[in-house]
Design brief:
By secondary structure, the chain is α+β, with helices and mostly antiparallel strands. It has 5 helices and 12 strands. The strands form 2 sheets. The chain has an 8-stranded antiparallel beta sheet. A 4-stranded antiparallel beta sheet has the order 1-2-3-4.
Length: about 250
């Protein structure tokens, strides 16, 4: 099994904000760069505690990311100067640029501003397809766990500790790993799946569905909707090690 828990190989997530941005004409393409582990760590540290972070896009010395809290969120844009990243647009639960003209006004070259915004917006369909394909592949190897899999933002945060709860497939049938991420701690638990329920040492999770929200998961300290592809944006080295040791993975089954 090829475990991919390096920060530089993250699966991106799409924001849950209800705002839909237009796709802008691109005058000159730049090569998109997946941020290095050091870049990701520096960028995440600048917005840690704002909510769950999704996609990080880097073009030259500029970057943009999505974050979300509950069913809201936004974009944050960064510039690298003297080998240090700083925020040039966006603030926690505040306004942010919707169009290239706005980012140009913050000092971002127009070509780069256009592509940063387009990359974030066009990630929506791609992420839905990624999660669907991942679940379909695991339904053949470990059918009972497939509907639970994904990176779930906690709609009760910040009134509950966990910002996100992600559920990972195990190589052992009928088991999953549940990873909770809060501002103060991270934990990994092995859960047993029985029907539409997961039981872990500290909690139980019930899978439900509705016409309005699709699949959702509820527990005593979480209400989870809008699952996205798994990612390790907040994971520290210990969490990654515990996942590997528990036999869980974000790879496709063999």
């Amino acid at each position: 099994m090829n475990y991919k828990f390096l920060l530089s190989s993250l699966v991106s997530l799409v924001t849950l904000t209800t705002i839909s941005l237009p796709i802008y004409a691109q005058p000159k393409p730049y090569k998109f760069q997946l941020a290095s582990p050091d870049d990701v760590s520096a960028i995440i540290n600048l917005v840690r505690g704002w909510g769950a972070v999704s996609e990080v896009v880097v073009i030259n010395d500029y970057a943009i990311l999505n974050y979300f809290y509950g069913q809201n969120g936004g974009n944050v844009t960064f510039r690298r100067q003297n080998n240090r990243w700083k925020i040039i647009d966006g603030r926690r639960q505040g306004e942010f640029c919707f169009d290239p003209d706005c980012l140009v006004g913050k000092g971002v070259p127009r070509n780069i501003a256009t592509q940063l915004l387009n990359r974030i917006e066009t990630s929506r369909d791609r992420h839905e397809q990624e999660l669907q394909s991942f679940r379909q592949a695991w339904s053949k190897a470990n059918r009972s766990v497939a509907p639970f899999l994904g990176y779930w933002p906690n709609q009760l945060w910040p009134n509950a500790a966990e910002i996100t709860i992600s559920i990972w497939p195990s190589t052992t049938a009928g088991r999953v790993c549940v990873v909770g991420i809060s501002e103060r701690e991270q934990y990994v638990e092995v859960g047993r799946v029985s029907g539409r329920r997961i039981d872990t040492p500290r909690n139980s999770f019930e899978l439900t569905d509705s016409f309005q929200t699709g699949d959702s998961i509820s527990s005593s300290n979480a209400y989870l909707i809008g699952a996205q592809p798994l990612n390790t944006l907040y994971f520290n080295a210990q969490t990654q090690q515990e996942l590997r040791g528990s036999g869980c993975t974000n790879s496709l089954p063999k």
